Amino acid sequence: MVEIEITPISTLIGVVYVPPCTIPPFHLFTKCRNKSFCIFGDFNAKHVDWKCEVNNVSGSRIVSWLEETGNEMILPDKPTSRRSDAIIDFGLTHDATGWHTEVLEEGTSDHFPVLIQSPLNISDSAVFRKTNWNIFKFFLSCVYEYWLARVYNYDEQFFFTHFSLFLQNLWDRCSCCKPIKQYRPSWPSYLVMLAKEMNRSRRRYRRNKTIFNLNNFIELKKIFNAERSELMKHKYEKRLELIKKDQNIWKIATPIFHLYSPPFRGLNVNNTIIKETASIVEILANHYEKHFAEHQHDENNIVHQKCISIYEQLGYMPNIPLDKISINEVSIQLKKYLQRNLQIALAHLPFY
Fold first, then answer.
1. Phi, psi at residue 116, to the nearest 5°?
2. 325 in helix, strand or coil?
3. Helices 133-142 & 156-173, crossing angle to 10 degrees?
4. H-helix or E-strand containing 92?
5. Are 94 and 118 in contact (CB under 8 A)?
6. What confidence tens digit (pLDDT) does each residue in 140-164 have?
7. Residue 59, exposed/middle/buried by CB under 10 A (0-12, 13-18, 19+)?
């Protein structure tokens, strides 16, 4: 399992595969008790509670575990198996509120892919890893012969361990961290292939400027623009549907209430209203120049001199962060403060 830092608390996310006729690893699931977690995978568990025709041992054990721990399930609305009308791919979580699933009838696997939309929010200060895969592949092609020669000289386990470390380090060196606000989801695979084909046709026309190559490039460009526009339209309509549902508009729009301010009718100085722009600017400039000017202390005052010397010494102190204060320490000090104030209040009560 991996832990991701999201708001308001961090969440554990993991995947699992339970072979048929076996029991799910509940000893691993119990480690997430009283924590925020999400576990997805192929459980091979069937039960009538999630629209299966029959029950099996794994399904009955999961139902019992959910009743004991109070956890919930993230269930698709359609069967996820091609071989039977059963939902065997789902998720377990501490709270299923806000999770949405959609079964996609695509692919050639014996399981349908499940698209999951989560209510998790990522902080604005978070970063994501962006990898330059062109440099990654180029470097691999340069050292391909070296690793091919090493595979015959090293032990199998030793080679795979070192090659895995090499790939991890290469991935780190070819990647950079960028703010999460700069993240843009990638295009679908068909649109990426269409864009590559359009670029190839453009280069082909630049090398050999014939009518056939020009018409081919123009036709591919029209198809690409139409497909991209259709994709953007679909995203826009999906966003509108999300906004119209319940109160989701406040997840996107931020309510800002402006204070009412009356119109400016002049500057009142000594019971005289000044309306000339130059005079108003000069008066305000003199005021704020004096307001933001450096404070002039009394050099003949010993207290002022002592405070100034202490202030100057603070500037030479190292910039060391303060130790974190636990919530228990704050609670203890607050109880002491309240108890002391209560004793003072009782001492001043009049006696009847």
1. -120, 130
2. coil
3. 140
4. strand 89-93
5. no
6. 999 888 888 888 888 888 888 888 8
7. buried
